[in-house]
């Protein structure tokens, strides 16, 4: 390992920089909390300003260095256009069979942009070599980022550690984009990444077990973690006598808006002797604007403001019940089946009971069930959803038990001190392993 003894010198490569406004940015900041600043650097592609709280050395890829990708994405994201409203919004989600032709064309153009030539300028290579990383770490997620991470690992001579947040390798371009070339390109570049990988990371234990079987490599699970100062004493549900305050904090993409709408409608159908609960939804500003009209017939749903880091802790503490939802759409279930949402560790640390509504086989639902923190409804059934909501409203002792169990689980599994230390140890261990041999140039094309 280069430099003085201690933590590995890590080059983080990805689309998103360190920042507190996206799930991946929050997870990065928490996992790398306390890392020596001279041993951390990041290369990223998003048009965003990074947070310098954890990392202070950045290199943003000039989007104009890949004209097809740059202008293609600008065209596809034009505000108010059919392209900007196309569904799905994430490339790794296959286009459903009944999707309009505009959505299919959108998917084709998005794939074309992702697979377009990537030019890595000489100054970036020199910048990376001057940093002398021991490890290249990346959440990957697209062909473009796989190419970027692979080439920077190659030019630096460091091992590549991929960290999988969703099962995008199984779903990216699975709709046959570019006559199947998109998915073939995913497989080819993922194979190249795995040849440089001696040990990988996943977001959940279930994903780690699946990926060990799938890719014949050791994998360890690391999800978002929570600073000890953000833990809140568990609520005593028996003390609540008025209308319950329900809160959801997170994105409305992945069809979560539709499932939240079901929750809002169910709240309006509760027995008349119950004080009417209210669900407050805190989401990114772009999501609040995009999906606001979907809740006009849900008077029990209030769209709150977009929250920053410290504001999330306060909002969770002010709630009586927290809400977690996942989509029941088959293509989304496949994409999220091993995922663990960024907000789940935050929910558990908040010491509040959770209503969980989504497919019961998903890792996020199973995690909440294992923690004993949630009253879960694992099938799409409005009657069962109403029953769960009514039970939470009437049974304060149940709310208290769920809150205490989740809080204890969070201390054992999600406190930032222990998770960040284990994460650092894992990367340092990888940095001591010999770098895999060079990958054939033939496989890179």
In short:
With 445 residues, this protein is α/β, with parallel strands linked by helices. It contains 16 helices and 13 strands.
Would you mind describing this structure in some detail?
By secondary structure, the protein is of the alpha/beta class. Helix content is 41%, strand content 12%. It contains 16 helices and 13 strands. The strands form two sheets. The chain has a seven-stranded parallel β-sheet. The protein has a six-stranded parallel β-sheet with strand order 10-9-8-11-12-13, with helices on both faces. Helix 2 packs antiparallel against helix 3 and helix 8 packs across helix 14. The model is unreliable at 1-5, 79-89 and 440-445 (pLDDT under 50).
């Amino acid at each position: 390992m280069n430099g003085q003894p201690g933590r590995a010198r890590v080059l983080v490569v990805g689309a998103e920089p360190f920042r507190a406004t996206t799930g991946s940015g929050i997870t990065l900041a928490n996992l790398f909390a306390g890392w020596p600043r001279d041993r951390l650097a990041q290369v990223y592609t998003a048009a965003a300003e990074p947070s310098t709280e954890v990392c202070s050395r950045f290199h943003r890829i000039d989007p104009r260095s890949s004209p097809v990708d740059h202008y293609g994405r600008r065209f596809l994201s034009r505000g108010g256009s059919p392209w900007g409203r196309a569904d799905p919004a994430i490339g790794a989600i296959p286009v459903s069979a009944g999707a309009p032709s505009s959505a299919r064309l959108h998917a084709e153009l998005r794939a074309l942009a992702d697979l377009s030539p990537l030019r890595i300028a000489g100054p970036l290579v020199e910048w990376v070599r001057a940093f002398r990383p021991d490890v290249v770490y990346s959440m990957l997620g697209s062909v473009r980022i796989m190419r970027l991470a692979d080439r920077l690992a190659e030019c630096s001579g460091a091992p590549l550690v991929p960290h999988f947040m969703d099962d995008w390798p199984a779903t990216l371009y699975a709709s046959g984009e570019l006559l199947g070339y998109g998915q073939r390109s995913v497989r080819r570049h993922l194979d190249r990444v795995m040849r440089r990988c001696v040990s990988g990371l996943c977001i959940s234990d279930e994903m780690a077990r699946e990926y060990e079987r799938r890719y014949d490599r050791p994998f360890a699970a690391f999800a978002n973690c929570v600073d000890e100062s953000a833990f809140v004493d568990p609520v005593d549900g028996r003390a609540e006598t008025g209308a319950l305050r329900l809160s959801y904090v997170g994105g409305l993409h992945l069809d979560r808006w539709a499932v939240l709408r079901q929750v809002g409608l169910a709240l309006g159908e509760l027995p008349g002797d119950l004080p009417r609960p209210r669900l407050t939804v805190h989401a990114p500003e772009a999501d609040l604007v995009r999906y606001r009209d979907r809740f006009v017939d849900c008077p029990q749903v209030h769209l709150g403001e977009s929250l920053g880091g410290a504001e999330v802790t306060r909002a969770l503490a002010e709630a009586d019940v927290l809400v977690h939802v996942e989509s029941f759409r088959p293509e989304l279930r496949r994409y999220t089946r091993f995922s663990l949402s960024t907000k789940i560790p935050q929910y558990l640390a908040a010491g509040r009971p959770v209503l969980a509504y989504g497919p019961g086989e998903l890792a996020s639902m199973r995690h909440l069930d294992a923690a004993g923190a949630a009253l879960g409804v694992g099938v799409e059934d409005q009657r069962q959803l109403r029953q769960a909501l009514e039970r939470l409203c009437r049974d304060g002792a149940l709310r208290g038990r769920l809150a205490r169990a989740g809080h204890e689980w969070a201390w054992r599994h999600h406190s930032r001190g222990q998770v960040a230390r284990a994460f650092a140890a894992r990367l340092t261990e990888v940095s001591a392993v010999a770098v895999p041999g060079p990958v054939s140039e033939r496989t890179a094309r």
